[in-house]
Every structure is written in C-alpha cells, then in structure tokens.
Amino acid sequence: MRVTALIITCLLAAFTARAEFDADAAWDRGNNAYVQGDYELAADIYDSIRNAGYVSSRLYYNLGNAYFKMGRIGPSVLNYNRALKINPSDADTRHNLRVASAYVKDKIDSVPEFFLRTWIRAWRQSMSSNGWAVLSLVMFAVAMGLVLLYLLSGRLSLRKAGFYGALAALLLAFVSVAFAAGQKNDILDSGEAVVMGNAVSVKSSPDSTSKDIFIIHEGTKVRIEGRLNQWVEISLADGNKGWVTESAVEVI
pTM, whole model, 2 decimals? Predict the structure, then answer.
C-alpha cells in the first residue's frame, strides 16, 4: 500500500508541476524575446518549454532559428532535424536546414543509393506519420464503399468500377500504412546525431590514446553504430567510421 501511495503521490506531483507551467505564456515570451533580438533568452525559454514535456515541430523550428541567430550551427542543425522528424514535409524547416548546413565545415558526399529508394523516401516524407495514418483510414473507407458498389450495383460497368476501384483503394491504404509506420520509425530512431564540438577528433578505437583518423566539425550529421562506456562509434554519409566521446555528439 505504501508503494502504491508513493507512486500516486509522484504522479500527482508531476502532473501538478506540468499544470503549473504555462506553456502558452512561455511560448509568447520566447517569441517576443526572439523578435526583440534576444536570441539567447528566446532559446532558453523554448528549452524550458521542451524540458516541461511539450514537444512540437514548431518548437524545434524556433529553437533552431534562435541558435542559428546566435551563430551556434550545431544546435541549430540538431533542432531543425528534430523538427523534420515530426513534420518532414515542412518546407520552411527544410530551407533553414539547408542554409544552416551550408555553414558546416565538413562537406561530405553521400554514398549513392538506388534512385527508387530515394524517390520512395521523398514521397514518404511528403506527409507526417499522422497524415499517412489518416489517409490510410480514408482509403479503407473508400474501399469499403466501392465494395458495396460492386455487391449492390446491377450494372456491369459499375460493378467493374467498384471492383477495380476497391483494389486500388486497398493498395493505397496499405501503402499509406507502410509509410505511416516508416515515418513513426524515423521519429523513434535514435541512431542519428549531430556533432556539437567545434572540432572533434575521430579515433580508431574507443580509447583516448588511440590514433586520430580524421576530424569532424560542429553541425556534421553522423550515425551512431555502437556504444562502449563513454564512447560511441559513428559513421559518416561517405562510409567513414570511427570513435568519438559520447559528449561530442547529441542524438537527434
């Protein structure tokens, strides 16, 4: 009983703390600070909203803008990428990410991939996971309506239209479900990170005395391949790999 009471007390305390935090008022203060040119204060306020448990693509977008205005390329790239995880179709965020990425010192060429994979990913990112989920429900509803048309219509032409239309709608529904799942996996993916240090030495092994392979700079996007103690193994878009300290990168 004591354990249950303690859990309930903790949950009530967390809920009360969240309720006492006025996210709307903080949002307005952050926006006002940004408009007035106090970008550091704006970033602090936006971070306080995020730390209180409120997350949105617009919040990360504004955080990215504030950090970019301060000349902090790493955090700006990080937050633009976080915004795109939630809303990959946001054109403003994509534009600002391209602008911020132009200031990153490392210009890394990606390993070429099959064009069809690139096309499918671009199509999938045209909407959020919620958007694809809604579209899948709509397509299922359309398919059911076309099935009824096939079953109840007395005209052969309408029956054909209902049959083939239902097949097409079901196909689009299943594709939408797959895209929604893919977008959801992208949001939950913790394998991508951004370099936070100004200049980070990449080691051949998870040891401070090991050989330096190359150097990467603030804002460079990497993929985390493994972890060992306070070290993470990273890979770049061009296929190069190595080890850096965990504190040198921040997960998107």
Answer: 0.74
